[in-house]
Each structure stands twice: as structure tokens, then as C-alpha cells.
Target: Diaminopimelate decarboxylase
Amino acid sequence: MSAAQHPIQLQGIALESIAQEFGSPVYIYDGEKIVSQIKSLQSAFATVPLKIKYATKALSNISILKLVKKAGGGVDAVSIEEVRICMEAGFAASEIMYTPSGVNFREVKEAVELGVMVNIDSLPLMEEFGARYGNTMPACIRINPHIMAGGNAKISTGHIQSKFGISIQQLPEILDLVKKFDIKIVGLHIHTGSDILDAEIFLRGGNVLFEAAMNFPDLTFLDFGGGFKVAYKAGDPATDMAEVGTKVSAAFNEFCDKYGRKLELWLEPGKFLVSESGYFVVEANVVKKTPQITFVGVDSGLNHLIRPMMYDAFHDVYNLSNPDGELKPYNVVGYICETDTLAKDRMLPAVSRGDLLVFKNAGAYGISMSSNYNSRLRPAEVLVWEGKAQLIRKREVFEDLIRNQIVLDI
Ligand SMILES: *Cc1c(COP(=O)(O)O)cnc(C)c1O
Model:
């Protein structure tokens, strides 16, 4: 690890000064990075009619969603609440794909009433959907292609034991239901998991879609899902988007010739669009030497950033307050009463109490997976856009914690 931890600047503003202005802990996003990721996808897939459906669940702040919309993206929502947040952000129903997993039919009805396309993920849902709507409401089918892929078991969604989608082996049952209720299927979808590196996996998924698609004459799009891997540290492999774009587009164009019509190619990137835009800044509460390890205890924990404990995820850490200090080994840990290691065995410029540390790549599945565990307040969010750092979510206050409690007269 090199000693030089250069000052991090977002659109010319020092990250440290943003954190000082808005306080700690705080999630800070670089809007330009989100837009440039969208552009890199658009150029990688320039030879096909591409639609980007940003996976809202990665980071669902309304200002971020507005930025995605401005950059030409649509959205994928996995709950009715996400559908409604997307509408708050100004997305038309036609720009929203609703991809539920095992939800109550009431929620599907609500989505249909809002005019949002439903991505059908089970045979019972297909039966109920068909019986109620027949051919009046175009729909998509989430196919489980039985491909094992993804960074780890918790984020693999396309293998044979996964709960997601309808098994490709059940295609005959799917076709029976489509015929029985005359359901208008306009799209087929797969999402095999997250942190997928190889173009080959997307191509294998594509081949499952292409073959299945020949059974559906009314298609307007094929949706390849998300799951592109980004680099979490220097030298980490990341999905080569240009390669994926070239290979998948070529296969897709060939398929369209065979299908007889040009379809749209949809992608649902979550992490790829927002991970690298995000910086999570915390403050060192205590530096605690023990016989074996020096711990830095920070004013945060798995309640704000669960990825290290949940997925063994690696987030690079910088010491913003002492970038040129002597490198020493630390474990950066949270204040939660539970083992919540945020970064293990890291060489950091000497940390003192009060130093601001930053976790990089914190845009995706950071605040969107945060909680109030230990009755802690959730952090503020700040967006840097057009050279200005602006608050896009207030830091929670104590009243937020107890707002919905009903205190009995005991
Ligand atoms: C989570 C999810 C995505 C995005 O996954 P990333 O790994 O963040 O790209 C896309 N589509 C669906 C249906 C999802 O559930």
C-alpha cells in the first residue's frame, strides 16, 4: 500500500471540507460520477436500442433518482414503495419496471393501477395476473436461467436453488398459462446476481433469453438485469463494460435478425451506476490499542454500512484528516454492540481521535441497507452536483426514532 493518500476532491471541492460542513457520519455522492457511468454504459451498448433501468434499491434517494432520469435512465423497482418513490422523482409509470419477489397480489394490483409494468416472478402470480387482466396489461416474465454467478451465495439469484424468477425448465407451464389467459408478454428478464465479472455469464444468460424468446411473438424488449462488478480496491477486477457491450450487443443483434424484429435491450445496473459515486465519512471516536490489534472505533457501524459484515465486502478506507501520516495497521470498527468490523488489517496514516475517515465505494447498498439498530440515528446524505454540495437527506433526530411508538399507560 502506498503512503500517498491524495486528498479526495469531488468536482473541485475537498471531501474533508464537505464532511466538516455537514457533520459526521455522512454519505456524500458525486453526481458527475453517476452520469459518467450511465454514459459509459450507453457507449458500450451503442449498437443496440439500449434502455437503462436503474435498480432503485441500490440507492433510492429522490435527488439521485432525478439525476438518473436527467441522464436518460429509467428505473427498476422491487417494491411498491420503490415504485412510489420513483414517481415522486418524476418518472412516468411507463419508465418504471416493477420486479417483485413473492409479494402479496394486492401490491401487484396497486402497481397495475399505477400503470407500471409487472415482471412476473412465479407461476401462481402468472395465473392470478392472467385471470384478472387477461391481455389488457402487457407484462414481463422473470426467467430463472439456472446459471450460478455472482460475488457470493447471498447475491446469486439465478441458480437452480434460488427463489427468484420462474425456472426455464418450467417454460411449458409458462406457455400454457400465457395461452390460457391470452397474456400479452412484451418482455423477458433475467438477473443472475451481483458482482458478475465475465461477459461470458451475460452471454450465457442471453442465450437462455434468446431461445425462450422464440416462443413469445409480442416481445418489445429483453432485459439482461444488472450485476456488473465494480473495483472495490486498486487492482480489483471489474466487469469490462466495453467487452460486455460489444459481445452482448453482437449476440443480441444476431438474435433480433432471427426473431425478425429489432427489440430493445434493457439493463438494470444498480451498483455499477452508484457505487463509486459514494463516500461514507465517519469520525474516529477512540483509538484503542490491545495486545494484538489497534482498533479505531468510529461514530458508525453495521447500522449504517452493513456490507462488510453481511457480504464480507471490502471498502477502501482513507484518513482524510492526516493523509501524510505514518502508515500503521488498524481494524476500523463500529460502535454497535455486536462485532461490526468495517475494515480489517488496514494500513492507514496514523489515526487520532477526531480524525475523519472515509469509506469509498459506499454509494450502492450503503444507506439503502441502513437501520436504526442500537437505536442509532441514520446519517445525512449530501449530493455534489454542478460544483455544489447540497443536503439531500437530513440527519435523523431522536424524535424520528420514537415517532411511531404508542406508549401505553403502564
Ligand atoms: C438488485 C437488482 C439489480 C441490481 O443489481 P446490481 O448488482 O446492483 O447491479 C438488478 N435487477 C434486479 C431485479 C435486482 O433485484
Notes: The first helix runs from residue 15 to 22. The chain has twelve helices and 20 strands. The pocket of pyridoxal-5'-phosphate is lined by residues 55, 57-58, 76, 78, 99, 191, 194, 225-228, 268-272, 364 (CB under 6 Å).
